Amino acid sequence: MEATQTHPNLSDAALEAIANRFKLMGDPTRIKILHQLMGGEKNVTDLVARLGTTQGNISKQLGILAGGGLVSRSRRGLNVFYAIADPSIVTLCETVCANLESHHEQKASSLRRR
């Protein structure tokens, strides 16, 4: 695949920041949490029920996502609600999902032709 756009030279610091952003999304549980939050804000109890994992694991992963600026927290009474803080994450996830779907369709098509 040939690139159609030219990109500016990036500093080592910028490349490190980009790599760190991808690392934040490098855990399946964090991807599942982000996917749930794309449908609107949720609290830990909601996420535990939807994802079937422990409260401790969800809280840990939310802390990592919040620390990286991908999700925001808002307290209402005794509950803390989490939401997507960086809309570019939604775009990135949609792009990756569409690419994977296309890739798998092409692979399945090539297998059927044989």
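[next item in queue]
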Amino acid sequence: MGGEPVLMIRVLIVDDSPTVRLTLQTILESDPQIKIVGYASNGREALDRAMQLRPDLITMDVLMPEMDGIDATRLIMTQCPTPIVVVTTHLSDPELEIGFQCVAGRRGSG
């Protein structure tokens, strides 16, 4: 109330599903301190948008066409380090294993 500026958290949403992107947008924008600054539907777009928009946070799907979230995360962290939250709706064992490998910072051999 003392006139302190409210810092907005600028978020880039990365998911190949329009439904998931909209759901994440709705959830995140329910917080008045979060602003969605962009969207990407694959890893290549995510890298381009991260470089262009410089968000404070990125939500990243794991399985996407063209470039997956693991490779995109690796490139983003090399070229413009940004906190990334891995978000996936896939529940089968292979997808979970990929997600855990992503979080651990490594990718399995098969």
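[queue empty]
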